[in-house]
Amino acid sequence: PEPPEGGWGWGGMLAAMWCNGAVLGIQNSCGVLFVSMLRLFGSSEDKQLVFKTAWVSSLSMGMVFFSSPIVSIFTDLFGCRKVAVIGAAVGLVGLLSSSFVSTIEPLYFTYGILFACGCSFAYQPSLVILGHYFKKRLGLVNGIVTAGSSLFTVSLPFLLRVLIDSVDLYNTLRVLCILMFVLFLAGFTYKPLVPNTKEKEGGKKGKFKLPPAKKICNFSVFKVLSYRIWAFGIPAALFGYFVPYVHLVS
């Protein structure tokens, strides 16, 4: 169907804005958490611990985007709402469980993988749903949504500093769970106008049959030169984009 250029889409835009802010805001503020983890688990003088601690935020930030191709396939198969809600729930569990660990190693799984993969599953549908409701205004809407990540990235470090000094790291992570819970609720606003693959294949009987591989991964688009330039150019440009967030502290 033709995008309505508004309507329920404005609610989806606000939800997507919160998603960008919560996910990228927490990830981009990893420097504050890094310093706090060093204090909690040892000392900044311990070079081995510094390396091990940096891996927590590096792994988390990497998994958010490394999981993107898989998330895109799931979004195609099951729709934006289900993927976003389940992803936010997994991210909430990962972040909450991170607040109960006593050593650095479990954080690789709870924060670096579980929380990050949940964020990835919540993040990608927030970009897809915008195209269901907007076409002419898509540029404006994308600008507003991405502004959410800027607002959270600028403000969260100050909030985290106050929280960590007041209630320690563990309780700070529990406070951040509120952001993920709101994100969980926001996922329910992703009401798609385009049926997902499961609905198309299942029909009225509701039986789900896995579509052909060509429908899941459409490699024919790489035949277009301009797409190849874009597809390889953007990753190259982003190759060092997140490095300063992790290493600027030291």
Q: Mind describing the biggest β-sheet?
A: none
Number of domains: 2
CATH architecture descriptor text of the largest domain: Up-down Bundle
| C-alpha-based Rg, rounded | 19 Å
Number of strands: 0
Query: Per the principal axes of the C-alpha atoms, what is the gross shape?
Result: globular
Average of pLDDT: 84
Question: Which residue ranges are poorly predicted, with pLDDT under 50 across at least 5 consecutive positions?
Answer: none
Question: How are helices and strands ordered from N to C?
Answer: HHHHHHHHHHHH
Proportion of helical residues: over 70%
CATH topology of the largest domain: Growth Hormone, Chain: A
Q: How large is the share of residues in beta strands?
A: under 5%
Assembly status: single chain
Q: At the first level of CATH, what is the class of the largest domain? A: Mainly Alpha
What is the fourth-level CATH superfamily of the largest domain?
Answer: MFS general substrate transporter like domains
> Structural class of the secondary elements?
mainly alpha
Catalytic activity: L-thyroxine(out) = L-thyroxine(in); 3,3',5-triiodo-L-thyronine(out) = 3,3',5-triiodo-L-thyronine(in)
Family: Belongs to the major facilitator superfamily. Monocarboxylate porter (TC 2.A.1.13) family.
Main location: membrane
Protein name: MOT10 protein
